[in-house]
Amino acid sequence: MVVTDPAAHPPIRVVAVSVRDARGRFLTVRKRGTDAFMQPGGKPEPGESAIETGIRELDEELGAVVADVAWLGEWTAPAANEPGRVIEAVVLTARLVSLRGPQAEIEELLWWDPADPAVPAERIAPLLRDVVAPALAATDR
Fold it and tell me: Residue 75 — φ and ψ, nearest 5°?
């Protein structure tokens, strides 16, 4: 077992935004040079609220406009693209108003359906796959 020194590798603090379409699929993005699809979002700027971060990141990454942004929860999960690291994430929900497409460091977007086996589970970030999708599925019942 590899033990990581928390002082040497502190958690990565991020804001993630969960956007779903009418079919319940999640909007995910894959950054250039990585394999995992994750919820759009990123690191807050100094003095920025979680909601401000989420709105800014969706605009920067996807040219997206969102509405009805709301707090969903705060969770810790393994970082998808940094082995041995964890993220501390504030997760928001939002309704998509418009979307231009991948921009900045985003290589690809994917509308992910947790019930569709076409995308292997290991290609979905642990935060979304193991925490957010099950949490939202429980509220959909």
Answer: -140, 160
Mean pLDDT by 10 residues, the chain (141 residues): 59 97 96 96 97 97 97 96 94 97 96 93 96 88 54
Residue 1 is classified by DSSP as: -
- Strands laid side by side in the 65-78 sheet: 41-42, 12-19, 86-98, 65-78
Task: Tell me the sheet residues that pair with 95.
Answer: 67
| Residue 7 forms part of a structural domain | no
Provide the total of helices (H) and of strands (E) in the chain, helices listed first: 3, 6
β-pairing, 12-19 vs 86-98, is parallel
Range of the domain at 51: 12-129
pLDDT at 137: 86
For residue 19, give the CATH number of its domain. Answer: 3.90.79.10
